[in-house]
Amino acid sequence: MLTMDMIHDIRFRFFMKGEKITQISDALNLDWKTVQKYVDMTDFNEPSPKPASEKRFCPKLDPHKPIIDKWLEEDKQAPRKQRHTATRVYNRLRKETKGFDCSYRTVASYYSVKHAEIFSNEKIGFLPLEHQPGESQADFGTADFFENGKRLTGKYLEVSFPSSNKGYLQLFYGENMECLFEGLEAIFRHIRVVPNEVWFDNTKTIVSKIIRGGGRETTERFNRFREHYCFRAVFMNPGNGYEKGSVENKVGYQRRNFLVPVPHFISLPDFNHQLLDMCEEDADREHYRHNETIEELFSKDLKHCHALPEIAFDSSGRRTVATNKWGKFYLNKGMHEYSVSPKYASATVNLKITSSIVIVMDENYREIVRHRRLYGNKKQQSMDWLPYLKQLSFRPRALKYSGIYDMMPHDLKKYLNNCTNTEIGKVLKVLAELTDRTGFDSALSTVNQALCYGASDADSLKNLYQRLYANVPELPPMSLESNIPKIKQISASLVDYDAFLKKGGITNV
Predict the structure, then answer these.
(1) What is the C-alpha to C-alpha distance for residues 131 and 57, in angstroms, rounded to an integer?
(2) Structure confidence by residue, pLDDT tens digits, 443-457
(3) Model pTM score
(4) pLDDT digits over 14-28, tens only?
(5) Is the separation of the CB atoms in 19 and 13 below 8 Å?
(6) How far apart are CA 293 and CA 282, in angstroms?
(7) How many folded domains does the chain comprise?
(8) 435 neighbors 391 (Cβ within 8 angstroms)
(9) Using alpha carbons only, what angle is made at residue 73 by residues 69 and 75, rounded to the nearest 5 degrees?
């Protein structure tokens, strides 16, 4: 399989420059069937969930790459028809460089990638003032919101169409590649087309290196996303955010109009659907420059966009991590700690990461546990006690020697200390059941109630849980009328019962 840079070069030549299959195959020294394959390609998902190992591109050519780069950089000052071709570079290397023993195919492969880096982005230095229909710009803004009563600081992706001044936004817990992909996908799906061009900042999320001369090295996942949706990515000059002033203005406008006052909602996905509807309503106003509504102008944008791909793109991230002796692992440079299970202590697990969820899977990609994704630059922990409680319920005697006991909350340890050895296994099993039903917090609240009553058995835990979480009303004492006589409690005498039973001919067995 060709590199993503070469695939992008093929598709750029075909879709943007309008070159024919035979022209591309001749220029890149590739079989026309190979060119046709990547022109027709619609699915750019990674072929395997396993992380691809990094490989150097054309390593045999490493000693000669600096001179090739120099020649191509000098070509920027030469007329277009007097620039190096792959053949000319190959012939000069053979003639002028000692010890050169690379094939023409190797030179042509490197030439096509380097030439695209140097010359395909020349437009970036001379951005047009007039925006064309079908062009869009993307950027992130910051906003606070309340979800389920909890105040959070998040990021929202803004996508604007400068030609019509229409914009869309999607709110997230943070800013990363998963948020970018999910936000773009949601907006593409909403408008049912894909813009031909999207302008970006040089964010580290997608740009791994800024190359002298205007080129960009972008991440493998972004390359796949871009090719899957077949749009051209344009990057701003560093420090020149004004070049995409449309989206910069839209970030502020929609924050003031859609996120003030600070929004309150139950579900972030549901609120994101509402935001898209609010964007549609906002487009009914008149354009600030033209005597048409934003929606009327946006119809021209839609005509210059292209259809969505038939195959869905998996925007989640994939990673493999090692767990510690407690069955935990860390993300975000060790700031965020996630639990797995004691069964997977000191093991390797696979992760599937979205903008909001971290799914932990075993070596066969079967789900073990899932966590809400943590955000922020402070130390945080996401602990799912269910796998730990289940595992310990089978081996209760190992509780205080497993290291898990020290991780438990103080009240839970206090409660288990009051249990007998024979009761601990049953109690842990009940706690696992309660955690599975309504979460560990409700199970811990039940334990706190049990401590108040001095109860230390599994049946008491079940009854207290029913009282707390099953909506069983606690009835007040029944009041009796004043004319009802009070009856003294009659105590039973087992001796009298024995005498009665003997008279009836029944004897003890």
Answers:
(1) 37
(2) 888 888 888 888 878
(3) 0.68
(4) 888 889 999 999 999
(5) yes
(6) 10
(7) 4
(8) no
(9) 120
